[in-house]
Design the sequence.
């Protein structure tokens, strides 16, 4: 295991003990709380493209390495990942039968964030550096306590119904107090170039299958095309059109695994007019053709 994790992190055995009984299979497991998902994996996964929605990712066992542009982002026991924007990146997972990956993901609700930021009475400092949209944070005692309480609540349906939303609120509150609090607050303040890019990303995710140009996106951000291209790349580490292509391919990957539509139908659904171009782009990005990828994923689900 890399030496990136803090040696003085509080023991996480309790988190593992709380998560393990709630897991029924590898992959993601829904819970009684819509914003909370559990994750488990008993095998390593090589570096592969993916995209997280804005969320907190807490790993109790195993670890992950994310690659965003030239950055390496390590998160495992003693750390949690704060993902404030839906960014395409690459990730490798370190897990095994003896030591499976166990963790949970908490989707960030903009309304809850706004309510907490307002209640905390914090404002963005004028000299605060531009937020990092994706970074790992050391888990302190307060955060670990909040996560423990949330997991304990999931073991009791009545307590989950009554107290679950408050337990989620507790975890998000701790994240706002952490070193990535500025990035979370930036989602609420709606100021500056960062906020303008956030709004454009929202449009891209809502209408990714439509034809779009840098010029039209720049107009939405109220920037010149050159300024928009520069600020977009500073935030996402890719150009606007690269982002759109990767978004479409990741959406296509999800459809390939989850649905029975053929490759031609999926290509059209995500905005491709040429099936052959879709297949070439897919193989270039994921390293394998669409149909072969589908068969491999289905084989893993059966085994």
Sequence:
């Amino acid at each position: 295991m890399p030496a990136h994790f803090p040696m003085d992190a509080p023991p996480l055995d309790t988190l593992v003990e709380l998560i393990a009984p709630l897991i029924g299979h590898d992959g993601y497991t829904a819970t009684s709380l819509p914003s909370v998902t559990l994750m488990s994996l008993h095998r390593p996964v090589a570096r592969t493209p993916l995209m997280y929605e804005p969320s907190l990712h807490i790993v109790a066992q195993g670890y992950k390495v994310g690659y965003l542009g030239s950055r390496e982002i390590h998160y495992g026991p003693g750390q949690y990942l704060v993902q404030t924007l839906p960014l395409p990146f690459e990730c490798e997972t370190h897990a095994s039968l003896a030591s499976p990956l166990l963790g949970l993901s908490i989707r960030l609700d903009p309304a809850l964030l706004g309510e907490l930021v307002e209640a905390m009475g914090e404002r963005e400092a004028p000299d605060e550096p531009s937020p990092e949209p994706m970074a790992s944070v050391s888990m302190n005692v307060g955060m670990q306590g909040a996560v423990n309480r949330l997991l304990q609540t999931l073991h009791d349906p009545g307590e989950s119904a009554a107290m679950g939303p408050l337990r989620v609120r507790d975890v998000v509150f701790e994240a706002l107090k952490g070193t990535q609090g500025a990035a979370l607050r930036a989602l609420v303040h709606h100021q500056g170039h960062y906020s303008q890019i956030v709004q454009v990303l929202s449009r891209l995710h809502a209408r990714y299958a439509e034809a779009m140009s840098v010029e039209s996106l720049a107009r939405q951000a109220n920037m010149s095309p050159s300024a928009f291209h520069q600020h977009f790349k500073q935030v996402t580490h890719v150009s606007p059109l690269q982002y759109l292509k990767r978004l479409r391919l990741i959406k296509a990957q999800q459809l390939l695994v989850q649905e029975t539509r053929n490759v031609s139908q999926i290509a059209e659904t995500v905005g491709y007019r040429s099936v052959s171009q879709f297949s070439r782009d897919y193989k270039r990005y994921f390293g394998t053709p669409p149909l072969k990828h589908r068969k491999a994923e289905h084989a893993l689900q059966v085994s």
